[in-house]
Amino acid sequence: xxxxxxxxxxxxxxxxxxxxxxxxxxxxxxxxxxxxxxxxxxxxxxxxxxxxxxxxxxxxxxxxxxxxxxxxxxxxxxxxxxxxxxxxxxxxxxxxxxxxxxxxxxxxxxxxxxxxxxxxxxxxxxxxxxxxxxxxxxxxxxxxxxxxxxxxxxxxxxxxxxxxxxxxxxxxxxxxxxxxxxxxxxxxxxxxxxxxxxxxxxxxxxxxxxxxxxxxxxxxxxxxxxxxxxxxxxxxxxxxxxxxxxxxxxxxxxxxxxxxxxxxxxxxxxxxxxxxxxxxxxxxxxxxxxxxxxxxxxxxxx
Length: 302
Ligand SMILES: Nc1ncnc2c1ncn2[C@@H]1O[C@H](COP(=O)(O)OP(=O)(O)OP(=O)(O)O)[C@@H](O)[C@H]1O
Ligand SMILES: [Mg+2]
Fold this sequence. Notes:
Blueprint: E1 19-30, E2 33-44, E3 48-52, H1 59-66, E4 74-79, E5 82-83, H2 88-94, E6 96-98, H3 111-118, H4 120-123, H5 127-132, H6 135-155, H7 170-182, E7 188-192, H8 200-215, E8 219-223, H9 227-233, E9 236-241, E10 244-249, H10 251-255, H11 258-265, H12 273-297
Parallel strand pairs: 3-8, 3-9, 6-7, 7-8
Antiparallel strand pairs: 1-2, 1-4, 4-5, 9-10
Helix pairs in contact: 3-6, 3-7, 6-7, 11-12
Residues 59-60, 101 line the site of magnesium ion.
Organism: Streptomyces marokkonensis
Keywords: ATP-binding, Nucleotide-binding, Transport
Region (Disordered): 270-302
């Protein structure tokens, strides 16, 4: 009987520059509402890609379409050239892990137990072994705990392994969610507003953590409203507005795009000449401000 060694990694074998995620024409309708409309997006190995857009733009819905939580009304999602199965646990097993906008932890489990739960897609083959509780099971369990502790060390929570998840401050709960996602050994990590509720120091630490994740060979797709965070972090940024991809490009290109500025200022995109003129003035002012402020540290654009 084979027992999973718990070291299997979906991240291993990634070729630099390989397309990890390929979403084509993804559309999600809820009755009469089109939350996501014909969105194409790719993420390559070694990349950190940002997904931004106003509230209700369809960002989380798009993530749900990528992770098997929703079956897109139209379109196709491929991970490393394989069409993804429409079940979230199968998507996780294939190599895509995620965190949630509204933290989803097992509040009454310890920090370590939460990470161990995240490992189950990598230890399924050990089911018989687990039932029989033979030497293979104990070996696999020890390896799993060691890996979970290593991940807690990586995110800076090792000292709190035995604490209950509900007793962690908010910022640490977000880190724990990341550790749990990493426990499934993904090749692509999707983060839905990882710095929401964090203070500036925690946000900076989260930035470093995401760079370190990328350096471990895991591609990252991240949703955030914090523009400074996104622009510092991302190789490419895609902007969703009313379910549609408005623009995609490097941080500088996206940052100075007037439609993006207008979308964030809440100006209507419709052809209202008065509104358009006002938007242009505001956009120019914002762009001037952005250039002044952004020069050394990109202190702007929240
Ligand atoms: N399960 C659902 N049923 C019906 N409508 C939904 C469902 N999920 C999302 N929506 C709608 O789809 C639209 C997009 O919502 P979504 O949560 O994806 O936006 P978002 O870009 O993540 O916004 P935020 O920045 O506020 O998190 C909204 O109008 C929302 O009300
Ligand atoms: Mg959302």
